[in-house]
Write a sequence for this structure.
């Protein structure tokens, strides 16, 4: 008889945008999980805006471009390359391996990226971001978000500009099928990547899901998300990486220590 898979029968809600959720769902399913894809965030590109155009005007003198997500790579590079080739002197940096890989896949042979934890704090500790006085820095990101990168680099003497190239939107999804699955005992964990996703998800499932949240584990990639007040609605919070392998390891602990 074959041994059970590490995540056999474990129901996991994946709240990432659909394009990112499907590969993760497939990866977890191979480990025996039952994924429920329920995007709590939709990415909409910003095709043009005065602020984005002004930011891209500075690319020619940019010494460092930081991409905060794979979405920033997709939409930011598209906007930049409409204006011409990437400037030879503009180094690129990424928060997280998925973002770094997206840059490599887009033709960048060298990407500044932190090892270990994938967050702004770890990137800021990288030796190439410690001495930036007088450097022109462009941060490709969505509208809004943490200010740590800009504030810290500015305090180190860099001139920092945001290139906000997409917006995050709460989708209008029907939550009844998901709540029904919860009621059947089919869901044991919910995965969210950001505080905004967590807020959207709790709002989307509504108060009728409150008892189910209280019996469900929350999987997050960063302590800052775990510290969000809404995280306290869940039975327990597991902090892990955003990669499928890290999530699978965290989810496997639910089978050992339910």
């Amino acid at each position: 008889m074959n041994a059970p898979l590490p995540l056999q029968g474990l129901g996991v809600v994946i709240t990432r945008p659909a394009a990112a959720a499907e590969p993760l769902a497939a990866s977890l399913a191979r480990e025996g999980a039952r994924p429920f894809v329920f995007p709590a965030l939709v990415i909409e590109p910003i095709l043009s805006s005065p602020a984005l155009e002004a930011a891209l005007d500075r690319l020619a003198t940019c010494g460092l471009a930081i991409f905060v997500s794979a979405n920033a790579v997709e939409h930011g590079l598209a906007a930049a390359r409409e204006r011409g080739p990437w400037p030879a002197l503009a180094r690129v940096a990424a928060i997280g391996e998925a973002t770094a890989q997206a840059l490599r896949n887009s033709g960048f042979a060298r990407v500044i990226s932190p090892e270990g934890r994938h967050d702004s704090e770890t990137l800021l500790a990288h030796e190439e971001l410690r001495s930036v006085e007088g450097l022109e820095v462009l941060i490709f990101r969505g509208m809004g978000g943490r200010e740590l990168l800009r504030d810290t680099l500015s305090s180190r003497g860099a001139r920092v500009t945001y290139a906000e190239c997409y917006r995050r939107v709460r989708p209008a999804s029907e939550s009844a099928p998901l709540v029904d699955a919860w009621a059947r005992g089919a869901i044991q964990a919910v995965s969210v990547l950001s505080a905004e996703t967590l807020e959207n998800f709790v709002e989307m499932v509504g108060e009728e899901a409150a008892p189910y949240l209280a019996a469900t584990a929350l999987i997050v990639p960063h302590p800052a998300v775990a510290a969000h007040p809404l995280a306290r609605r869940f039975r327990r919070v597991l902090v892990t990486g955003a990669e499928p392998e890290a999530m699978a390891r965290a989810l496997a602990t639910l089978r050992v220590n339910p």
The longest helix spans residues 18-30. The CA atoms of residues 114 and 126 lie 7 Å apart. The chain has eleven helices and ten strands.
